[in-house]
Amino acid sequence: MRVLLIEKKEWSSKYEELKLNTCGSEGCPQSRTSCSFNRKTDVEKIEVNLRKAFGLEKQRLNFLVEFLHIEIDEHKASLDSKTHEFDLEIDQKRKCLDDQLSSRVIGVGKKEVEINHKEETIANTVLVLDKKLEKIKEKEKDFESKVKALKEKEKTMRSEETNMETEKKQWVA
């Protein structure tokens, strides 16, 4: 592009030079016609060359625009591909986390059921043990009352025995 711009400037400066020369050579009419013919052909050549340069510049710009469109399309495709891969990866990780969370929730639920079952079992065991303790206390009270009654009976029997011995001694004596 720089080369074309430099070439364009050169041709423009030559064109301006030729214009000035045509205006400055008014002294000789014959040479003016031949000069002006030469200058006219030079100007036409310059004009043709400038048009070629402009055409090449236009082609080059069109090529660059086309190239940039292709590059942009490639970048968009690459970006879309990477975005799609990223979305898939995110979805996969999200699913994995959801699965892990679900399994943990299920595990916690099982543990909760197990703990509730153990609490019920322990509560039932405590009730059974409390009932047994009450029965044992009742039996202990019954036993103590029977022991007390037996001791009283034994005491009564001893006193009767002593009474009988005293009577026996009195009968024997």
UniProtKB/TrEMBL annotation:
Its main location: nucleus. InterPro entries: CRWN. Residues 153-173 are annotated as: Disordered. The keyword Nucleus applies. One of its GO terms (biological process) is nucleus organization. Keywords: Coiled coil, Nucleus. GO terms for cellular component: nuclear lamina. It is found in: Nucleus lamina. Belongs to the CRWN family. This is Uncharacterized protein. It comes from Dipteronia sinensis.
